[in-house]
Prior knowledge:
Layout: H1 3-26, E1 37-39, E2 49-54, E3 60-65, E4 71-74, H2 76-88, H3 93-98, H4 101-131, H5 138-158, H6 161-186, H7 190-193
Antiparallel strand pairs: 1-2, 2-3, 3-4
Helix pairs in contact: 1-6, 4-5, 5-6
Amino acid sequence: MSRSYLLIAAEIIFVGLICVIAAFLFRHPPSPVPGAVEVELKLPEEGAKVYLHQQPDGQFAYLIAHRDGTLDHIAPDQLAATLYESAKTPSTWLAQVLHNPVLLFWLTIGLIGQVLFTGRMVVQYVASHRMGKSVVPPLFWWMSLIGSLMLLAYFLWRRDPIGLLGQAFGSFVYLKNIMWLMTESRQPDPVAAA
Length: 194
């Protein structure tokens, strides 16, 4: 089996693995109580989910599923009071990011990945401008690969299927070009050998 077929097989396995991970991440978790439905509410607690449940007496109650697995049953008035109190104390986006180290870490990974991925075009433009023709320098492929892998990790964390698909396929193109560059650099120069 030639190296190009191995690379294609590796790409298929890699993209398949990304799809399996995405399917696992994007699956809808079961409700904590049969018949409860998830409600899209943003609570002050990161990662907490809200469910609405109709009790046997016909009354409605909210369930708050915390990240640690605990479950709180609260009345609608209690939930309203909690949401009201959290809305009274405005928090800027920057304050939320700076007080959440996990969010700060992943935003930093995504930002650096995007800067590398966008910066590769600046590198290519500068190299082409210097040569007076279209040129793709090796740094372009390295920035593409590293930026792509960082964005892939960020999109996995964000559970963004569009970003995942966009970055999963491209990373093998960048890797293959780097492999070609490395093979070229190991071959002796025929002009120098003569």
